[in-house]
Sequence to fold (433 residues):
Amino acid sequence: MFWNRDNNECERIREKFSPYLDSRLEPIERDEVRYHTERCKECQYEVESLKIMRELLHRMPVAPVPRSFTLAEAHARRSWFSFEMPSISLENSMRAAAAAAIILFALLISLDFSGVISEQDSPSEKEMVGTIAVTPAPSGTPATEQPSIEGDGIPEALPPDLNSDSDIGISVQVVTETEDPYGESGVSSPTPRSTTPSWLLLVEISVGALVILFGSTSFLIWQKKRING
Amino acid sequence: MGFIFWEHADKRMTTHEDELILCSKEGNLDAYNQLVEFYQQQVYNIALRMLGSPQDAEDVTQEIFVQAWKALGSFRGKNFRAWLFRIASNACKDFLRSKRSRKTDSLDAIFPEYNPLPSSTESPEEHTLKEEVSLLIARQLLYLSEEQRLVVTLADLQELSYEEIAEITNTSLGTVKSRLNRGRANLRDLLLKYQELLPLEFRP
Fold:
C-alpha cells in the first residue's frame, strides 16, 4: 500500500525531471522535485543521470554544412496554382489497375447474363422473327397452336381475335431468333433465348486478360516485397 | 490586393527576416537564398541527427529548401523558423518511411560522418575523447523512436523552447515534455552500456 503510493509519487515526480533540468518549472514544482529527490535515492540517481545526458547532448558538436543549399533558378521555378501529382508506387498503381479491371469485368459479365446487351439490340441484325406462342390455359381448354407471325419486327399487340377471347387464359411469349439452322422458320421455340454479341465476348475476354495480367503483376510485386522483408 | 497585404504586413515588419520573407513570397530568389544561408546549418543538423547519414541529410536538406520555396505562399504564421523546421521534420519522416520500405542500410553502416580512428596529426587522446563520444551519441540517437529523436534533437541539440517544439511537431506542451523525458531516459539507458567511453565527469 505504502510502496504503491511511493511508487506513484516517484512516477509523478519523474515526469517533471526534463522541465526541471531545463528550468521550466514553477518555483513550487521545482521545490517539490528538490524535496523529493533529496529523500529518494532512486529518483536522485535518475535526475542526476538525466542531467548528465542533457549535458552530453548540449556538448554535441554542430556539423558543418557540406555545401551551400541556396537555390538556383532551375530549382526555383514555381507556379502558385500548380497541383503536384502525388508519387504513386508501381505496386499501388498495379493494385488499382487490377481492381478497376475486376470491377469492369464483373460489370460486363452481369450485363451479359442479365441480357441487357443482347443481339436483338444489334442494329446489324436484319432478319428477326417474332413468334407468339399461346400456352394452354389452366382451365383445361385445348391448347391452340397459333401459327407464327413472320414480319419485320416483333408484333406489339395481340391479334384482335385473341384479345377478345376472355374465356381462355392466354400467356404470350415473344421469342426472337437470330437464325434458324433447321429451316423451320416460324416454329415457336420452347424457351426464350438471347445470344451474346461477338464484340461483347471479345471485350469480356480482353478485360479478363487484363485482370489476370494486373492481378498477377501486383501479386508478384507483393511476393517479392514479402521475401525481401 | 498586394497593396493591402503590404500595408497589413508593414505593422509587424520589424526585423530583417520579415523583409526577406516578404520579398521571397513575391518571388525574389536572392532574398530567399539569404534565408537559406541563415538556416541551412540548423536544417542540415536536424536532418543529420534524424537520418544518421550525411549523404541522406544533404539530399533531404536540399529537398526541404525547395519544398519551403514552393510552399512559401501558404506561410501565414509569425514564426518562420518553426514553419521551416516543420517542413524539415516532415521531410525527414517521409524519407525514413520510404527508406524503411526499401530497407537498404543497417544502422552500423550509416554513420561514416566521424572517423573513430585518431588522425596522426592530433594527439590521440584529444581526438578520441570528443569524436568518439559524439559518434556514440549520434549512433544511439538512431535507436530512439522518430518522435523522441525529433524532440531530443530540437530541444537538446538545437536548444529550442518547448513552445516552439510543440509548434513544429504539432503537439501539446505535455506531449513535448513527456517525449523529451522518455527520449533522454532511453538514450541514457542505451549509453550505459558504453560507460567506459564517456568522460570521467559524465560517468554516473
